[in-house]
Amino acid sequence: MKPITILIADDEAEIADLIAMHLEKEGYLTVKALNGRAAMHVVQTQPVDLAILDIMMPELDGHEVTRQIREQHRMPIIFLSAKASDLDKITGLVLGADDYMTKPFNPMELVARVNAQLRRAMQLNQPAADTLSSLQVGGLIIDPETRTVTIYGQTVELTPKEFDILHLLASHPNKVFSAENLFEQVWGESYYDSGNTVMVHIRTLRKKLGEDPKKFIKTVWGVGYAFNG
């Protein structure tokens, strides 16, 4: 079994070394980058299973690195940043990050989050046989095997979380999911005060689905969201 490689991109070498030390104790291989351009070079030249990115990096910031990674890769991305506002967190998640931790941080908590994201990624890459069939509603086609979405033949570019939300809702037409249900099933973590995160993802997902976004995802006021089956 090939070793799992984790990219650590942070311009503070001491922090990158600390993270690497704890992850290597867990048996992971680590590759460090001190700026965003170096991080992209790593992603483009060797296999990476998960990336831990600082936001405020020179050359390319963490947001731009995430945009470029998401053009070609689906690896889990965890932001680790001193930027702690709700807006910063939501922005990171909407761009395609899978988790967000603020500095200062507990290294063991970061390791636990890395483990959780890798477990989830492995589950998504090994779906059960009965979940491989495409879902089709009108001109919308959702293919969980290739993780692609098209509307009347036109590809819709979704982030991994947007795809997961859409596929979950479409797999249970007309079933109402609360924001808590969606967060816990898609992010795989306990729900605290993450309603805004879910709301922002639903909003951007609807926008990408076209001119009549509520045709597919409806809001059940005071309860949650459902897919129009």
From TrEMBL:
Occurrences of domain Response regulatory (ranges): 5-118
This protein's UniProt keywords: DNA-binding, Phosphoprotein, Transcription, Transcription regulation, Two-component regulatory system
OmpR/PhoB-type domain ranges (all copies): 132-229
Matching SUPFAM superfamilies: CheY-like (SSF52172)
Listed GO MF terms: DNA binding
Residues annotated with 4-aspartylphosphate modification: D54
Cross-referenced Pfam families: Response_reg, Trans_reg_C
Gene3D superfamilies referenced in this protein's UniProt entry, alphabetically: 3.40.50.2300, 6.10.250.690, Winged helix-like DNA-binding domain superfamily/Winged helix DNA-binding domain
DNA-binding region(s), chain positions: 132-229
InterPro entries: CheY-like_superfamily (IPR011006), OmpR/PhoB-type_DNA-bd (IPR001867), Sig_transdc_resp-reg_receiver (IPR001789), WalR-like (IPR039420), WH-like_DNA-bd_sf (IPR036388)
PANTHER family attached to this UniProt entry: REGULATOR OF RPOS, RESPONSE REGULATOR SAER
UniProt-recorded name of the protein: DNA-binding response regulator
Source lineage: Bacteria, Bacillati, Bacillota, Bacilli, Bacillales
